[in-house]
Amino acid sequence: MTTLLFVRHAHSPWVPNREAERPLSTAGRVAAQRVADQLDDRRIDAVVSSPYERARQTVEPLAVRRDLDVRTDDGFRERALADGPVETVGETFESAVDAVWSDWSFAWPGGESSDEAQARGVAAVERILDRHEGETVAVGTHGQLLTATLHHYDDRFDRTFWREALTTPDVYEARFEGAEMAAIRRLYEPAE
């Protein structure tokens, strides 16, 4: 059994045209420590992250406590909605996201469809499963990419899950037998 702890990044302020460099906010840094606290009693053999700063900073406290490096995998980066801000295609963020969730094969110019994002995320999961069989790996990632990836294994993970259930941050423990997801459950407990 291989366990992946999918960690959706903590709060990061929106900065136009700086998707990859956006750091965590002060509240996000506090929440990242809370994630590390809640997972303190768990064995973690490796930490892998999206190359985006906010995802890496969210899993960094886990890695530091265990004296592990944070390896990056571009497969876990957030979905590109369009080539540049979605306003350039005449949409708001909400309407642009609705379009790619409504039709999984649709992509805005220069962006990724849900099918494409899912294929990239599943390939990244498969790389981890191949490299870390029988281990527990924390994976820093993003909401839309995480949802599309998990949908491959369980169709309960959809647009409604992304909009209504997933928090910033969040943690889901997925247990795999080979390449098949055997079980998944939420671990994160948000602050009250």
TrEMBL record:
Q: Which CDD domains match?
A: HP_PGM_like (cd07067)
Q: Which organism is it from?
A: Halomarina salina
Instruction: Return any one Pfam family short name.
Output: His_Phos_1
What top-level branch of life does the organism fall under?
A: Archaea
The entry's protein name is: Histidine phosphatase family protein
